[in-house]
């Protein structure tokens, strides 16, 4: 298991980009992920009270296994939290929380356990058979996938 998150990291505190921050996450909101108006999972969004950095956790309903990441997962400053949706998969396997780059690729493990590269431009998936949305644009909403 990997322990991440609540350690010091460099972030913007009071206008200083190199000031170390001991994150103080507080609950910020949730995004419910729905299929046919039935919630199949959610993304919990937390925000540091000091530097306003966001942290997210994926909650898949019916999955009881413990994630390999414990604590508040960190994200690089040049990425944004996003939700990747596969048009090719069904049910709970259809979506996942990802760290979305502005452009480039993200790795995605399909249900057949094959890992594929998915193209991203302007923080949006542009690969056939997939779509995405940014977490920041849907906090405290339900998104129908």
Features:
145 residues, mainly beta, 4-stranded mixed sheet, 3-stranded antiparallel sheet, 0% helix, disordered N terminus
Task: Explain briefly what this protein structure is.
By secondary structure, this protein is an all-beta fold. Helices cover 0% and strands 56% of the residues.
Q: Based on helices, strands and strand pairing, what is the structural class?
A: mainly beta
Percentage of residues in strands: over 45%
Q: How large is the radius of gyration?
A: 16 Å
Order of strands side by side in the largest beta sheet?
A: 6-5-4-14
Helix content: under 10%
N-to-C series of helices and strands: EEEEEEEEEEEEEE
How many structural domains does the protein architecture include? 1
The pLDDT mean sits at 83
Give the overall shape.
globular
By DSSP (H or I, 4+ residues per run), the number of helices equals 0
Please describe the biggest sheet, giving its number of strands, its sense, and whether it closes into a barrel: 4 strands, mixed
Distance between the termini: 30 Å
- Identify low-pLDDT runs: 1-8
State the total count of DSSP E strands.
14
